[in-house]
Amino acid sequence: MKVLVVGQGGREHALAWKLSQSPSVSKVYCAPGNAGTAADAVNIDISSDDIPRLVQFAQAEQIGLTVVGPEAPLTAGIVDAFRAAGLTVFGPSKAAAQLEGSKSFSKELMKRATVPTAQFAVFNSADEAESYINDREETPLVVKADGLAAGKGVVVCAKKEEAIDALNRIMRETEFGDAGRRVVIEERLDGLEVSILAIVDGNTIIPLETSQDHKPAYDDDKGPNTGGMGAYSPTPLVSPELMDQIITQILVPTVDTMKKSGCAFSGILYAGLMITNQGPKVLEYNVRFGDPEAQPVLMRLKTDLAEILLAGAQGQLSKLPPLEWDDRPAVCVVMASEGYPGDYEKGRVIRGLDAAAELADTKVFHAGTSLQGEEVVTNGGRVLGVTALGNTVADAKLKAYQAVKRIRWDGAWCRHDISDKAR
Predict the structure, then answer these.
(1) Using CA atoms in the order 239, 301, 328, 393, what is the torsion angle rounded to 10 degrees?
(2) Smallest Cα–Cα separation from 145: which of 117, 106, 184?
(3) Which domain holds residue 144?
(4) What is the per-residue DSSP string for 347-365?
(5) What CATH number does residue 409 fall under?
(6) From first to last of its 423 residues, what are the pLDDT tens digits of the chain?
(7) Nearest of 347, 345, 337, 418 to residue 376 by alpha carbon
(8) Among 9, 10, 215, 182, which residue's Cα sits nearest to residue 98?
(9) Distances in Å between the alpha carbon of 262 and those of 95, 258, 307, 342?
(10) Longest dimension (CA), the chain
């Protein structure tokens, strides 16, 4: 079977790498891919948002399974287009992808499903939103752009002035473009965040191993939010009992309510949760593998990923045996470009990748890279996801940072405390 992975980030490299290990897979294509997928798969020069050309390519190459990595093509309806062409594709429909594409849709659905989440209000008018903020008591708030903003459209605010400043940036200064035409304002939840990924086929839900992302740019969770500066799996925050609670109170009612709403969910359901004193509450839903959570989770997966995703795409998850996992934890450290999550330069030559690849139980997943002749150069803000397995979380962290030390380019940086929350 030939497989097509759509996207060009670290998540897509992890998917292509894992899918290529399947005995049932003869060839993996990645569109458009990056310098890392060029080594583990075959890159195709088609943008992830060029849906007609992707459909044509899949038909011409008789692709047996297409796996869509990023959220933008999913919310644009790539799955609907592939299904209409008679192609097998793993991911949610355009209607179901609203769960990530519109935070107001997601929050309203949680409300209908009685899924625990923060109290919220939705506004189409900046003036009305500002009045709402001013009329409230001085409590911490979170201001969110309604649409897709590459993980950066969420501003956590301690004071009213900060919330109004965030509102101005999102709605009046249109920092995030059309994504900020509507905002969701909600109470800030206190606790520790965890990422729950589950494979869903409309009816059956198979949770994957737990992980924890690190969104703020700098050590000790300081600085602006990013797309994610690292992750580890599993997280000790989620006990088996808590996982049962998450499944019954969050995942099951969400999937059931989606089905009752006429947009049955198939694909990856990603629940970003805050573990509060009142129990787990949903911060947001995504409709694809997390990035960088996919990297440590897929490093630990022993079951054939192609079989899992094909069963998910065909509505056959109930026939799968239990998934098998490597008991060892995995840690992923994101190496970023100077200036990220703000402006940064591209085209800086990356050295030391071969030296890092020599380390056992370590894989360097490429995110923002490209090939310039024979050289690998930076092509994004988050450049690499250096991932390692270890006998303990501390051991995995040590191995990951040993690999990080072997890699260099002008302006490279990373957080130094990824996975410390596991202690």
Answers:
(1) -70
(2) 184
(3) 125-181
(4) -PBPB-HHHHHTSTTEEEE
(5) 3.90.600.10
(6) 999 999 999 999 999 999 999 999 999 999 999 999 999 999 999 999 999 999 999 999 999 999 999 999 999 999 999 999 999 999 999 999 999 999 999 999 999 999 999 998 999 988 888 888 888 888 899 899 988 887 678 888 888 898 999 888 988 989 888 888 899 999 999 998 899 999 999 999 999 999 999 989 999 999 988 889 999 999 999 999 999 999 999 999 999 999 999 999 999 999 999 999 999 999 999 999 999 999 999 999 999 999 999 999 999 999 999 999 999 999 999 999 999 999 999 999 999 999 999 999 999 999 999 999 999 999 999 999 999 999 999 999 999 999 999 999 999 999 999 999 887
(7) 347
(8) 182
(9) 9, 7, 27, 39
(10) 61
| Nearest Cα to Cα of residue 154 among 71, 223, 224 | 224
Sign of the alpha-carbon dihedral angle for 19, 23, 24, 27: positive
Contact call for residues 255 and 409 (beta carbons, < 8 A): no
The tokens for 11 are 């998540």
Which residue carries 């991932």 as its tokens? 387
State pTM to two decimals. Answer: 0.93
Q: Chain-centre distance of CA 91, in angstroms?
A: 13
222, β-bridge pairs: 218
Closest listed residue to residue 68, CA positions, set 153, 5, 150: 5
Taking the C-alpha atoms of residue 223 and residue 117, their distance in angstroms, rounded to an integer, is 25
| Count of the separate structural domains present in the chain | 4
CATH number at residue 33: 3.40.50.20
Beta bridge partners of 393: none
For residue 384, give the 3-state DSSP assignment.
strand
Residue 107 in domain: no
Return the structure tokens found at 103.
């935070």
Return all residues near 196 (Cβ < 8 A) that are at least 6 apart. 207, 210, 238, 246, 250, 251, 270, 271, 273
Which of 319, 343, 365 is the endpoint of a domain? 319
Q: Which residues contact 355 (CB under 8 A, 6 or more apart)?
A: 406, 407
C-alpha to C-alpha distance for 30 and 87, rounded to whole angstroms: 16
- 101 within some domain: no
Whether 293 and 197 have beta carbons less than 8 Å apart is answered as: yes
Residue 116 lies in a domain: no
- Listed in order, strand segments (DSSP E) in 10-90 are 27-32, 42-43, 65-68, 89-90
